């Protein structure tokens, strides 16, 4: 977790706090301690504690120094302190009364032999430190090559060069004791520094390298864990975990430190279980204990012939043990039925937190609006249809009101047209043009019936002309008598 100063700066580049004012969240420095006494003022008679805690190499190493400069130093400032035949530069990680508790925890006594703070780090000191820190990666690669050429069974984890460049500390891990007297001579001649070899464990190496564990969080050894206790497989057995080396081991190759976190809780819960109940005797045979479930307070037993397990309550196991002491073997274990299904979720119901508001009135208004909109659309469609029809066009008369002779003429015409010409399907525009003169002719005829002269001039069985479009031409109008 980083602080607000670690955001992006200009042009999207990460700005970083650059040790200006310190990082209060602990994301820029490992193994930080929150100073919960920082905002509590001290009385006038009490002076602040003159020893401060300084971290080096981003928290991988910490040490205590006495402030003899008579200056008020805050957390996060870079200070120059005494080193081995020179000086070193570190960052203040803790000040005030909490330093006493940290010294007591690490068993460091307040003696005159405590190293001193020289001054606040200047720009020249910081520039020199950056030049020497840039040499650490190359030095680590060369140091590993030299150790391999000699044939030493060791693994170099980190190289830390002092700020003034006069001393280099080589952190290594090894299973057995290593004779590195010849190695120190080669390192001193190659790097021209004072060499210090420091052996660390596999867990401390993982803390220096860092990483993310199987839980999805940063490793405990690289953030807050300092005391590494031994972890055994018995811790996994007490917690009913399968002894799988791949799952129980961490990035360091050892058993995970988190196996000890809940071990005390399991041990307290197991006190209620009987200790002398590894085997119980029944009429079916001897049942052996397989596991204990502290969450359900059950003990699982199985017979030697089968792999089936029977869960028993603690009271039932105690009863069987008392019967066995009296040389009595019960007929049945009276196993408990364990339901593996998930419990059903209870329906809590609906609570109207808004108030006594009914939505029926809103629904009615919405329905009325929809009905009105539909009626408006219907009226608009009817108006559009009436406007599209031409004004001079008259409606066609129905066939029911026509005389019977005229209906027979219309029924015989399409049949003769089909016999005289094979073309049946014609475009709609031609049909409309042909129907218009028929309508005019029908309108001129009287309602009583057609005149005999028109029937003689336009007989029904007259053949069609080839260019007539499949229908007879309309009759010419009669000339007026003078």
Automatic annotation (TrEMBL):
Residues 410-419 have a biased composition (Basic and acidic residues). Residues 367-381 have a biased composition (Basic residues). It comes from the Bacteria. NCBIfam families: RicT_YaaT_fam. It comes from Chitinophaga rhizophila. InterPro entries: PSP1-like (IPR047767), PSP1_C (IPR007557). Pfam families: PSP1. This is PSP1 C-terminal domain-containing protein. Residues 115-200 form the PSP1 C-terminal domain. Residues 421-438 have a biased composition (Low complexity). Residues 362-482 are annotated as: Disordered.
